[in-house]
């Protein structure tokens, strides 16, 4: 029944006519990835890049080649926002619509693109030349407004530069040419730094100062694996991706698990809006990162690693591939590293495709397995059963870099920096209303005020620490310290001056979570929509005092009943502003007159029926005929 | 007890099936006890169409699907101290709110009316028109739970709520002893 029968769903007629892609071409793509269902994301990315659409017949072919069902393939294809079931333009322009970009002049830039290309946001031009889309933070927050043009990044867009770029594209220039006329002659590193500034404002002792090449790995190679783990434990290193789990313990757990295979995964998904520190490490310290992963492999006994790079950072792909290739050539990856028998380790690059949730470690593993990027139920934890069921260490880019440095300079050196419980340095990525947005490597323990002074953000009225899932603080809390125990952050520090509208910011952040929820848990999928709507009421001045209780109660339910960290933190923009900016809310609430709700608008509710009946309402409309 | 002034109660059925009102009658012989405590003012049970006086408690069955429902609900809110949403339709919209599920349409209301009166498979409507008598209230774009239109003080769950829970809640409210429902009463499975 299911073989040989043509699919006649309604989809096939509306979806792309590139459905006519010959099955052999699709088969060839699948072949490049060994027809391996676990490489589904790579396969579909390749299809998308080539045909700008994943059509129903393509999905059938992919399913046949990889031994999956069509619905499994469609599950992946429909999950990621960079993959599309309907045809997209040969050039897709994705503008970051984060609140930071909005405050940096996004609207004017959008207007220019729409005017020059003759399409609106969300549309594809009739000749399939261009698609215009919004996307959440692409990690260029220090140089907003920013956009991706296929694989190329444009930053600090102005009305003029946007017009020049749009016109050049319209005239048939390739996206590469927007960066340089001689793009082909540039090295990958030159290309990356032409597109994106590093903006390193303060180099610390550990990561961004001078770093001798592979010194950590040299030492680790001579050490017993258990001593490597002990050194990491002694250093006090905690994960830099947000959750702050003690890295040494994580490695120890993975090493202790009885298993034939173990995996090292690097989380370079960096999706939390306002975070862009990994971008800089990937550009400037890629060897240090792979060195750290290799040390972790040695420590836990892993032979394979995956570097999961967010789709938005595809412009760094060549650079990273080159680094991996270079290290393989020099015997720093591959078989018998450092001439040590059984020290075999290699890393593959896995690109994401536009999904914030894939930064959550379970979802990241799902994504690497070729599945939709949905978190996994815990336990089991990744260190026990992770990638394809094998013990897996997932660490952030910065965490691996620190680990390599610790092996070189020693645990005591690292432990001495920072504060009790938060040792070493941290990369802070600062953006928003400040004079010097960029990267600051500082020991843990600085106050927010100190950091604002360094960044020229003295006008700040509010600071979002840790991105939307973190905490929004007001001036009266600028004495608080950036540590795991006080204000924890994966790096993001977003500065807002007194002219910004707190409720507008909160509403944007809620829309971000609504967009990025994977949809598995109802409280997260539906609850965040309700929260966003409720904030809309406050913004329109239609909220009552009791709506504040509603916000708190619903937030509590979402936090308590969600499966993963996204749902557990998504109400934070609301909860932290309710706590730190209570007046912002109370100023716009008023009790209902006669206890009748202002939010219910009878005129708009009956408008449709009025048009259908072609008459006025005899209850709610005045009779003008009299 | 009998020297206390009796409480005044009003009830209305909006977008409901009248099942909740039938459930009020399921109080059975305890109705006699209840009547010692209350007078019923505006209500289908007394056939009084208007408030004759301000009431202590208003009981609403059904949500709002048309403008008249909204009008009645506003009237109840203005004339009752305490307003109770009785049953799933009043609390959440209930069965009538199924039409809110017509999404992805530019004109969901039109689509709904056309299916109900013209295009539906089993429709026999020789006029081929959507009824449009001036006496018919205009439909709302969606079916709204009562709490979206006015503030609601208490919700008695169920479809229909049992006679016991109605009797229990009312008698406790009347004697000032209502402290919310036991978990068993409001769980969904
Ligand atoms: C919704 C969500 C998004 C996350 N995004 C990232 C991310 O982009 N990068 C990252 O390193 N960790 C992210 N994390 C944390 C990871 O789940 C995991 O804790 C981390 O990668 C572990 O590495 P670390 O211990 O080195 O920080 C995210 C967590 C959640 C719940
Ligand atoms: S909490 Fe949200 S993002 Fe996390 S698994 Fe549930 S639905 Fe998905
Ligand atoms: S809740 Fe049930 S019984 Fe009551 S009106 Fe609605 S459908 Fe009828
Ligand atoms: S790139 Fe726009 S906010 Fe990060």
Mean pLDDT of chain A: 95
End-to-end CA span of chain B: 39 Å
What shape does the CA trace of chain B take? elongated
Q: Kindly provide the name of the CATH class of the largest domain in chain A.
A: Alpha Beta
Number of strands of chain B: 7
**Which oligomeric state applies?**
heterodimer
Largest interface: A-B, 25 and 28 residues
The 3D shape of chain A can be described as globular
Query: Low-confidence spans of chain A: pLDDT under 50, at least 5 residues?
Result: 1-15
What is the rounded distance between the termini of chain A? 69 Å
Biggest sheet record of chain B: 5 strands, parallel
* Low-pLDDT ranges of chain B: none
User: Widest sheet of chain B: strand order?
Assistant: 2-1-3-5-7
What amount of the residues of chain A lies in strands? 5-15%
Kindly estimate the percentage of residues of chain B that lie in beta strands according to DSSP. Answer: 15-25%
Classification by helices and strands of chain B: alpha/beta
Give an overview of the whole structure:
The complex is a heterodimer of chains A (626) and B (189). Chain A is an alpha/beta fold. Chain A is 42% helix and 12% strand. Chain A has 27 helices and 16 strands. In chain A, helix 11 (215-221) runs parallel beside helix 15, helix 12 (225-235) runs antiparallel to helix 13 and helix 22 (522-539) runs antiparallel to helix 23. Chain A is globular, with a radius of gyration of 26 Å. Chain B has 189 residues and is of the alpha/beta class. In chain B, the strands form 2 sheets. A 5-stranded parallel sheet of chain B has the order 2-1-3-5-7, with helices on both faces. A two-stranded antiparallel sheet of chain B has the order 4-6. The radius of gyration of chain B is 18 Å and the shape is elongated. The N and C termini of chain B lie far apart (39 Å). In chain B, 36% of the residues are buried. The chains are: A alpha/beta (626), B alpha/beta (189). At the A-B interface, helix 27 of A face helix 3, helix 5 and strand 6 of B.
């Amino acid at each position: 029944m299911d073989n040989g029968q043509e699919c006649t769903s309604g989809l096939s007629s509306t979806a792309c006519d590139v459905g006519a892609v010959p099955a052999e071409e699709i088969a060839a793509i699948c072949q490049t990835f060994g027809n391996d269902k676990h490489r589904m994301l790579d396969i579909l990315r390749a299809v998308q890049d080539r045909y700008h659409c994943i059509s129903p017949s393509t999905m059938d072919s992919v399913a046949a080649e990889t031994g999956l069902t069509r619905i499994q393939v469609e599950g992946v294809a429909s999950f990621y926002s960079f993959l599309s079931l309907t045809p997209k333009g040969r050039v897709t322009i994705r503008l970051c619509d984060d609140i930071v970009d909005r405050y940096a002049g996004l609207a004017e830039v959008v207007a220019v693109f729409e005017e020059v290309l003759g399409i609106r946001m969300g549309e594809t031009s009739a000749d399939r030349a261009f698609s215009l889309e919004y996307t959440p933070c692409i990690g260029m927050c220090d140089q907003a407004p920013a956009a991706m043009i296929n694989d190329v990044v444009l930053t600090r867009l102005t009305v003029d530069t946007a017009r020049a770029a749009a016109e050049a594209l319209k005239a048939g220039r390739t996206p590469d040419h927007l960066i340089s006329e001689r793009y082909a002659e540039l090295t990958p590193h030159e290309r990356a730094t032409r597109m994106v500034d590093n903006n390193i404002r303060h180099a610390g002792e550990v990561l961004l100062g001078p770093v001798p090449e592979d010194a950590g790995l040299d030492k680790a190679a001579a050490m017993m694996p258990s001593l490597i783990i002990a050194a990491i434990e002694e250093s006090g290193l905690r994960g830099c991706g947000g959750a702050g789990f003690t890295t040494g313990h994580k490695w120890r757990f993975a090493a202790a698990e009885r298993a034939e295979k173990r995996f090292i995964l690097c989380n370079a998904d960096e999706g939390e809006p306002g975070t862009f520190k990994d971008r800089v490490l990937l550009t400037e310290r890629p060897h240090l990162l792979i060195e750290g992963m290799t040390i972790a492999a040695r420590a836990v006994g892993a032979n394979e690693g995956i570097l999961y790079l967010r789709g938005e950072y595809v412009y760094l792909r060549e650079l990273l591939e080159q680094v991996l290739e270079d290290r393989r050539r020099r015997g720093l990856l591959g078989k018998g590293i450092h001439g040590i028998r059984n020290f075999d380790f290699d890393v593959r690059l896995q690109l994401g495709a536009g999904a914030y949730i894939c930064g959550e470690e379970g979802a990241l593993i799902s994504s690497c397995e070729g599945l939709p990027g949905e978190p996994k139920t815990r336990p089991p934890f990744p260190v026990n059963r992770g990638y394809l069921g094998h013990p897996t260490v997932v660490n952030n880019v910065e965490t691996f870099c620190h680990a390599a440095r610790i092996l070189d300079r020693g645990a005591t050196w690292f432990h001495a920096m920072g504060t009790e419980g938060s040792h070493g340095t941290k990369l802070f990525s600062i953006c928003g209303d400040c004079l010097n947005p960029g990267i600051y490597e500082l020991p843990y323990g600085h106050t927010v005020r100190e950091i604002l002074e360094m960044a020229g953000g003295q006008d700040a009225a509010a600071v979002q620490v840790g991105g939307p899932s973190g905490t929004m603080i007001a001036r009266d809390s600028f004495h608080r310290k950036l540590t795991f125990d006080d204000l924890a952050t994966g790096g993001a520090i977003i500065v807002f001056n007194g002219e910004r509208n707190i409720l507008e910011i909160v509403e944007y952040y809620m829309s971000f979570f609504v967009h990025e929820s994977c949809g598995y848990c109802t409280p997260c999928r539906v609850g965040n929509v309700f929260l966003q709507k409720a904030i809309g009421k406050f913004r329109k001045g239609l909220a009552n005092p009791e709506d504040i209780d509603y916000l708190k109660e619903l937030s509590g339910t979402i936090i308590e009943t969600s499966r993963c960290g996204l749902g557990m933190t998504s109400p934070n923009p609301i909860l932290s502003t309710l706590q730190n900016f209570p007046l912002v809310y109370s100023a716009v609430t008023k009790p209902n007159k006669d206890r009748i709700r202002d939010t219910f608008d009878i005129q708009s509710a009956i408008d449709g029926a009025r048009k259908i009946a072609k008459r006025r309402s005899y209850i709610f409309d005045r009779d003008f005929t009299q | 007890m009998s020297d206390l002034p009796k409480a005044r109660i009003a009830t209305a059925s909006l977008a409901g099936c009248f099942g909740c009102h039938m459930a009020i009658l399921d109080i059975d012989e305890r109705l006699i006890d209840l009547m010692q405590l209350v007078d019923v003012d505006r209500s289908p049970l007394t056939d009084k169409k208007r408030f004759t006086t301000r009431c202590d408690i208003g009981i609403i069955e059904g949500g709002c699907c048309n403008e008249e429902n909204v009008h009645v609900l506003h009237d109840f809110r203005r004339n009752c101290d305490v307003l109770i949403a009785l049953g799933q339709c009043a609390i959440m919209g209930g069965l009538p709110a199924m039409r809110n599920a017509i999404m992805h349409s530019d004109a969901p209301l039109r689509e709904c009316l056309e299916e109900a009166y013209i295009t539906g498979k089993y429709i026999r409507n020789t006029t081929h028109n959507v009824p449009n008598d001036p006496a018919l209230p205009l439909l709302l774009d969606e079916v709204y739970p009562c709490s979206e239109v006015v503030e609601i003080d208490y919700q008695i769950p169920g479809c229909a709520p049992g006679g016991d829970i109605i009797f229990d809640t009312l008698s406790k409210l009347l004697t000032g002893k209502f402290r919310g429902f036991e978990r068993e009463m409001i769980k969904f499975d």
